[in-house]
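Standup notes
- HV: blocked on the assembly model, inputs below
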Amino acid sequence: MDRLNISRAQWARVEFQPDLKNPQSPVRLGLVLETTESDGSSVVVIGRMPIIDNRPKEFENTSVLTMQIAANWVNAMGKETIDVSGDDLFAKLSDGWHWNLYIVKPANVRVTATDTDATALAKRLYESFVGEPFGSMPRRKSSAKPKQQTQRASPPTTRALLTEDVPPAWMLKEIMDSSHLGAARA
Amino acid sequence: MLAAEVGVPVPEIRLGEVEGKAGTHAISVAFGKESIDLLRVRQLSGIVPGLKTALSKGSGLLAFHAWSATGDLKEDHVLVAVDSDTDYRVAAIDFASAFAWDLSGGAMATPTTEPKGLVENVDKVVVADTVGRIEQVTDQRIQEIAEGIPESVLPAAERQRVVIGLIKRRAMLRNYMRTKGWIA
């Protein structure tokens, strides 16, 4: 197996607080993971997003404007990770994401032998934080609808995946956005 | 407290300690059930009619920014409280760059073109009312407000510099607002 040597990893949880005036238990949405490997650094943004027209109860009283943010946060946050130097990544993200949808102070990750790459590590952290495996939601077949895929103009090493899962229980879609930033950032 | 005195929307700030960190910190009280900075709102939905109205109502902030010499003016520092899908309120946050004048009180130099949303939606009546309220704050009241800030946050010499500047700038404010075309 081609095992990457992750020398350092930090992650920050991403949560949603429906009411800043009368705080409730925050909704656990996902995380941002930054890893430093032998050939560079990677950033993975992984999480679940509510579907605007089929809201989970945690988002029932949320305005359309805030729903637009919650329903697209992985893509939006992923774009903001591009070309940010390592030490500044979480500081930059917390500058822009500190209201209802926010990132929590980053923490170091203890990497284990089973973490073969940044994506696998992100999925493990997602499961421990959100409480269910990433990609475990039941898929809804949708042959009539073309498959969605997010696109970015640059950099070419950046890839993004968007599933079409529309689970009846959480009414959320899971999404992962990852970028490999090359040795320049190592 | 200064903002509340002249009736401009700035979320309440409370001074206190933060667990695990040294020194006194300024903690901003939540402004709305849902809050979003204006820059993100503009990117998401543009300036919808309800928000345009809220920005006009909040345009007195331009006079307050001029009085307090707030320099780091941008739409990230205008907070939009979303009360419903059609009702919005705006407030200014982050005054870290304010009050940085010398004993002369400095020149009136800001705002100019930012925060764009406020500048583009000026209500001259709102701005004039705000200028009027600022002009009514007495020297004594400015001194009292400054004395309400703990010595550890604003030492005596700094306090006096700020008070002198607020008094001097209060006298220059109306003319600056006129030159900007924000009051009749």
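- HV (later): unblocked. Strands of chain A lie at 6-16, 27-37, 40-50, 101-103, 107-108, 158-162, 172-182. Residues 106 and 166 of chain A are 30 Å apart (CA to CA).
- Next: hand off to the docking folks.
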